[in-house]
Amino acid sequence: MKTTYYTDLRKASIALLGVLCLGLVVFFSSCKKENVDRTHFALKDNPAGMTVPSQGESQTFTVQTAGAWKVEPLRNERWVKIEPTEGNGEGTFTVTVARNTTLEARQSVLTFVVDGSIQNTVLRIDQAARGQNNGNGESYVNLDGLPNLEVPEEGLYGRYAIRSTGDWKIEIPEGVDWLNIEPMQGRYDQGITVNVDINATPDARTAGLIFYLDGEQVPGVFEVNQEGMEVILYEDFSWLGYGSEIFYTTGGETRIDNWSSTEKEKGWSWHKPSADNIPSTYARQGFVKLGKTNYGSDILSPKLSAVQGTQNLRVSFKAVPYQTAGGARDDTSLKVGVTGPGTVDEAEFTIDNWPNYTADPNCTEIWKADETTRTFTITGATAETQIWFLGGDYDLRAATGAPINKNRIFLDDILVTVMK
Predict the structure, then answer these.
(1) Which of these, 90, 160, 182, 283, has the minimum number of CB atoms within 10 Å of its CB?
(2) What is the mean pLDDT of residues 293-314?
(3) Residue pair 198/159 in contact by the 8 Å Cβ criterion
(4) pLDDT tens-digit profile of 335-368?
(5) Cα 290 off chain centre by
(6) What one-character-per-residue DSSP string does 73-85 give?
């Protein structure tokens, strides 16, 4: 009996010691977690959120903490700006909400990180929609109800509408020469044209437009945002000034082998001569013409020396087919390819965006039309790669079976960028 009792007591002692050790481990672990993870954080006065009118506004908030903090929105919203987004110890940050020109309310949520740990505190931002002028007397002016205008790297030429209850005016910041709006002022709802140049730099850019309504500046700023790109080659042929900009007026145009030495130094040449052994590519007023009667012609780019190693490229270009003043039309084939490394994903285009000489007698508006621009990609390009464009084929005489013995194409604004 003693032996049995002694054995039970020893087991009980061991069990009790295990429980005590486990308790101590849990206790110290809990203390350690508290000490590591629980840096105090709060926003002064514990704001529940930020309620903003449609006109927009700014509010400053005070951070109370001894740690390193960051303000992180759940989603990146262009209409919400935070400055600064991080700090160390007690400090402040300012939230600026842009004017809401849409008919829908919008929300955003800001979260906080202290010493690498996400906090339970959040700050909700609620902004009212722009009110409709439905008899309640509210005045407004906006660009097509947009919060901002996002423009692709390649630029933009588009028609929009100013919506307004009165006399309006738009002010573009000084020095923003890449953006043009016509007209800049008017009354009530009115169509406008927005023209944004290509952004041939790697840096994004922004222009903040100021709106005026009935002589008073409207609160907030409307942003025109354009992303940047990694440009390998951009050619607008602005250095060519021969002949006429009107397509069917051929007097004065100059064949590529007769260009000046300065123009030839730009690096543009031909891949192959036409079937009559003549490179029948012509310079015009800031663009080139490929081909002549019975013979197609090509143009060959300089080597893409800016390519690093081997890269995939996106090529965009503008092309217009030839049409006489009387309405007779050429064939519409434009072939593309490369010399050196690389392969194209599309080798031939149908160029059928015909000019309208009645609506556009000077042949300037057709270059701005969306359908004038086409694109293809090059896979595996290097610094030795060159791009060529060919109107139809080198021999268009009837004996070759060509459907039409003319396939003249006008070409401009060749842009080569690195694919993202």
Answers:
(1) 182
(2) 97
(3) no
(4) 999 999 999 999 999 999 999 999 999 999 999 9
(5) 31
(6) ESS--TTEEEE-S
| Domain spans in the chain, listed from the N-terminal domain onward | 41-127, 141-226, 232-418
Q: Across residues 284-307, what is the average pLDDT? A: 97
Answer positive or negative: Cα dihedral of 413, 414, 417, 420. positive
Q: What are phi and psi of 102, to 5 degrees?
A: -95, 170
397's CB contacts (< 8 A; 6+ apart) are: 275, 294, 295, 405
| Backbone angles phi and psi of 186, in degrees to 5 | -175, -160
All residues at 6 or more sequence positions from 241 whose CB lies less than 8 Å from its CB, including other chains: 283, 285, 286
Residue type, 41: F
CATH code of 232-418, in short, is 2.60.120.260
Q: What is the DSSP letter of 104?
A: S
Is it the case that residue 54 has pLDDT exceeding 60? yes
- Beta-carbon contacts of 260 under 8 Å, excluding residues fewer than 6 positions away, are none
The CATH fold of domain 141-226: Immunoglobulin-like (2.60.40)
Domain 41-127: give its CATH superfamily.
Answer: Immunoglobulins (2.60.40.10)
Percent of the chain with pLDDT over 90: 71
Give the strand pairing for 117-127 and 106-114: antiparallel
